[in-house]
Amino acid sequence: MGAIPLQKEILSRLKQCRGIVRAAVGFDNIDIKFAGQKGIPVCNVPDYGTEEVADHTLALTLALIRKLPYIDQYVRHEKWDWSAIGSVPRIRGMKFGIVGFGRIGSAVAKRAQAFGFNVAFFDPYVPSGVEKAHGITRYETLHELIESSKVITIHTLLSEETYHLIGRPEFDLMTPETILINTSRGETLDQEVLIESLTRGKIGYVGLDVLADEPKIPEELKNSDRTILSAHSAFYADESLKELRRKAAQSARKFLLDQKERSLVNECFLNFK
């Protein structure tokens, strides 16, 4: 079940609402601007699954590079033959491009470095010097990052700015060796162009934890032997779900007690008149 939309029609009926807690990272189902204009603070739980999503991103990446789904099926249905895996590149030194360098993007960078990837990122909103602190490369444009990277991972929130952030111009820069991973939001990619690029062999492999119209799964993605799909499960671990519930309840308590909440997502729109 998807998130319940809280748009102007519903929010305008709220007369005594002290705050809205989105028990998730994404909050694109809420009209945060209108809520702010009504004096309703909105917060999310931005960090409950950081480790899990970062781990999942690397798991998808490694599985695709090492062709684990293919060789597993081959061994089960054919025979024990290492050469069936075909061409596999070495990971050390491979350029790993991260789109969005927030909590999850930086956690992914740390893990990718441990495997020997040559890590780079694009994010116009992080301050200068972050790249020096992490010992990685920063690109000033998204296209430069895509052109130079063999692995591209998406870690942005969904907004008007990031909707179809990876569209036809970006897919045209990719190659049959490109590995694309998305554990953020399905709509950050133009899914139709993704399917077209995959079908025509213009992109190599795709790991998707999110889709544009979940839970619908396009047949082209379901039937491709160059995709891994994981049902929006990247966030999940037994511990992360407990952490989510605990932190959401703590935020609700803060709203009721008029205490400061650090994870407001509409502070710039708030009007307490």
TrEMBL record:
One of its GO terms (molecular function) is transcription coregulator binding. Residues 5-266 form the D-isomer specific 2-hydroxyacid dehydrogenase catalytic domain. It comes from the Bacteria. GO terms for biological process: regulation of transcription by RNA polymerase II. InterPro entries: CtBP (IPR043322), CTBP_dehydrogenase (IPR051638), D-isomer_2_OHA_DH_cat_dom (IPR006139), D-isomer_DH_NAD-bd (IPR006140), NAD(P)-bd_dom_sf (IPR036291). Keywords: Oxidoreductase. Gene3D superfamilies: NAD(P)-binding Rossmann-like Domain. Residues 58-234 form the D-isomer specific 2-hydroxyacid dehydrogenase NAD-binding domain. PANTHER family: C-TERMINAL-BINDING PROTEIN. Belongs to the D-isomer specific 2-hydroxyacid dehydrogenase family. This is C-terminal binding protein.
